[in-house]
UniProtKB/TrEMBL annotation:
Its main location: membrane. It comes from the Eukaryota. The chain crosses the membrane at residues 23-45, 57-78, 90-112, 124-143, 149-169, 181-211. It is found in: Membrane; Mitochondrion inner membrane. GO terms for cellular component: mitochondrial inner membrane; proton-transporting ATP synthase complex. Belongs to the ATPase A chain family. This is ATP synthase subunit a. CDD domains: ATP-synt_Fo_a_6 (cd00310). InterPro entries: ATP_synth_F0_asu (IPR000568), ATP_synth_F0_asu_AS (IPR023011), ATP_synth_F0_asu_bact/mt (IPR045083), F0_ATP_A_sf (IPR035908). NCBIfam families: ATP_synt_6_or_A (TIGR01131).
Amino acid sequence: MYTDLFSSMDGARSLITWLPPLLLMYAILPRMWNVTIISAIMFKFSSLWYSTTTRPLNFLPSMALGLFTFLLINNITGLSPYTYTFTSNLFTVSSMSILFWFALLLSGYVMSPKKALAHLAPSGAPLILLPFLIVVETISILIRPLTLTVRLVANISAGHIVLGLLANVSTSGLHSLGMPFYILLYVAYTLFEFFVSIIQAYIFTLLITLYGSEHP
């Protein structure tokens, strides 16, 4: 039973709510390395990374695959009843976003501070506009964790809220003539959320990879 529409965003500090996704990930992960779609995604991240001029973070494609697998399993697990998904927790996703963002940013400034600072000034820009462009670029870099967090949490939480509303409507109409329509609508929206879970995991990981490609 839902305590409120936003119960999917509470802290869920109970071990019972956190244990099923971890067990499912432990059971599925070893088998997923041999799946064709995972190999294709790994190739996508690798080709995107190695198409850039930077090479200091050779582990990034493997890390991106692990991150994608973690997000995908948790997104899909969250669609099951009586399970809690990490990716609808604002604090968990924001901590993860800040961790990856800050690690890439700090690594760039430590390894090559001049090149990292040069990214703030677009090449070929008029000299009179450089101060303004530097401020804009700095702000865009600083808000990256916020955009990563809001994009993932908002999409996953909104889907869970709508699923909860549809479930309540479906159960209230079990004895009505519209029951088949309610059930069909719920199944269709669940399939839609399944694809949204895949897309959101891919977008989050792809953005982290793109941020890493800017590493000097």
